[in-house]
Amino acid sequence: MSHTHFSMIRSSLLERFRELTASAVSFQALQQSVVEELSSKLPHYSWTGFYMLDPNDSGTLVLGPFVGDPTPHVRIPVTQGICGAAVATGETVIVDDVNADPRYLSCSIKTKSEIVVPIHVHGKVIGEIDIDSHDPAAFTGEDQVLLEETARLLGDYLEQHSD
């Protein structure tokens, strides 16, 4: 996908996400809309989903809405995996080759690369956007910008609403 084409898709998606955050009836409905939009507009996103910190156990991430094949990882300790690394650092983690990363928790033999973007509320990580691709090194700085802005919009929504 060319830089110009991706930029147009990014602008369109972010505008759509701003509209969704203004009208969402719940955070879960907003999450579902976001994963559906991302996966439909960006074909290199093979699995798109959310993991949120369990409100009763802050040491565990719980699978939220997702689009893609079912995953065996419905609960992930924050000390494990690439998802755990994003919680620990509070920063985006991009892995170009999941098979070369010892942190990777295998979900599918088809997955080749992954990006995990934390969602912050009042400065604390409360969850993350997790995207897998069947393509190696699928995620660029453009994906990172799109997903970090999406995570910021979601965090802002949670700061303004209580579900």
From TrEMBL:
Residues 26-162 form the GAF domain. Pfam families: GAF. This is GAF domain-containing protein. SMART domains: GAF. InterPro entries: GAF, GAF-like_dom_sf.
